[in-house]
Write a structure and sequence with these properties.
Belongs to the LytR/CpsA/Psr (LCP) family. By secondary structure, the chain is of the alpha+beta class. The chain has helices spanning about 20-60, 95-100, 145-165, 175-185, 215-220, 230-250, 250-255, 255-265, 280-290, 320-330, 335-345; strands spanning about 65, 85-90, 110-115, 125, 135, 140-145, 170-175, 190-195, 195-200, 200-205, 205-210, 270-275, 295-300, 305-310, 315. Helix 4 packs antiparallel against helix 5 (about 215-220), helix 4 (about 175-185) packs antiparallel against helix 8 (about 255-265) and helix 5 packs antiparallel against helix 6.
Length: about 350
């Protein structure tokens, strides 16, 4: 058989299986780009995972307690709409009390109920007068802040649940030293001061005042300088909480993972929460409220009656059950927006 003759091919003919050098370079560049993108994504995942691990490790330094209701606490209120958090502030716990998960002998100078609606777009922070005279399961009628001393966070939670008629989903108790550390870690906060006064070697001037941790702590403890005593102290506590919240959700803080981690690190040793308020739960809460800004935080007081002296000689604050029923319904129905519009500044 004769060998085939040379065949003349058309000038524009190309072998599709053999890409030209330009195509090969393009493919190599694309593959390199994809590889770099994959490395960047992997690096980002590692950084985020490391950050969250560090954040969780810092948060786990808190004391954890059980807030299950005891036999004498009565039935827990039926589930309402939205979430409710009980915030407690007090002086230092003893090491023994913290280790045991209790705070025996300690009264809560700060008691606030935070209601977060289902949509997570706002938050309503309600203060309780510390001398409000209410039923405390197993202890009769007493000042509401005594519940923490009688039975720790668990009894404080059940006392508030019984009084407001909605379940408390989580509790957080912070020692005042933790508040001081938080304010300092944030670089100070701006607080609205109601009037000129001096306390603890610090001068406070009416209007917006920048405070460091020690100044903020001194400010929230004062009551004798004010005509309405504890009631103004409640408002001052809310002013400091607002200052902290404004700084925490500011662009400066949110854009600084190191500052967030340092803040958590500074308060965790002074923090007690229920076991359900885990690190992952806090992250989920933060994500659900990521659009909240300072103007979306609404501060008010629960209704109360006049101060009076009991037969035993104790100075207490009466409840206002008729007005409380209106608040209870608003909490159950997740209609705090309407309630706030109608009752803000009433107390």
């Amino acid at each position: 058989m004769n060998a085939p003759e040379n065949i003349d091919l058309p000038a524009d003919w190309e072998d599709d299986d053999q890409p030209d050098p330009g195509q090969r370079r393009g493919r190599r560049i694309a593959l390199i780009a994809l590889g770099l993108a994959a490395l960047l994504v992997l690096g980002l995942v590692i950084v985020v995972a490391s950050y969250l691990h560090g954040l969780n490790s810092a948060y786990e330094k808190r004391t954890v307690v059980d807030i299950s209701r005891g036999p004498s606490d009565g039935e827990r209120p039926e589930d309402g709409v939205g979430q409710n958090f009980l915030l407690l502030g007090s002086d230092k716990r003893s090491a023994e009390a913290a280790k045991a998960g209790g705070v025996s002998g300690q009264r809560s100078d700060v008691m606030m109920l935070v209601h977060v609606p289902d949509d997570g777009a706002e938050a309503y922070i309600m203060s309780f007068p510390r001398d409000l005279y209410v039923e405390i399961a197993g202890h009769g009628t007493d000042r509401i802040n005594a519940a923490l001393a009688f039975g720790g966070p668990s009894l404080a939670v059940s006392t508030v649940e019984n009084y407001v008629g909605v379940p408390v989903d989580h509790v957080a108790l912070i020692d005042f030293d933790g508040i001081e550390g938080m304010v300092d870690t944030l670089g100070g906060i701006d607080v609205q001061v109601p009037q000129d006064f001096e306390a603890g070697g610090h001068q406070f001037t009416a209007g917006t005042q920048s405070m460091d941790g020690e100044e903020a702590l001194t400010f929230v403890r004062q009551r004798k300088q004010f005509a309405d005593g504890d009631f103004q102290r409640n408002r001052n506590q809310q002013a400091v909480l607002k200052g902290i919240a404004d700084k925490l959700i500011s662009a400066d803080t949110l854009s600084s993972p190191a500052k967030i981690t340092d803040t958590v690190e500074s308060i965790s040793p002074f923090l007690t929460t229920d076991d359900g308020l885990s690190g992952s739960a806090m992250v989920q809460l933060g994500l659900s409220m990521r659009s909240v800004r300072g103007g979306d935080l609404h501060f008010l007081s629960v209704p109360y009656g006049d101060p009076y002296t009991t037969q035993g000689g104790a100075s207490v604050v009466a409840t206002d059950e008729e007005s409380m029923d209106v608040l209870r319904e608003a909490l159950r129905e997740d209609d705090m927006g309407t309630y706030y519009a109608e009752h803000a500044g009433a107390y």
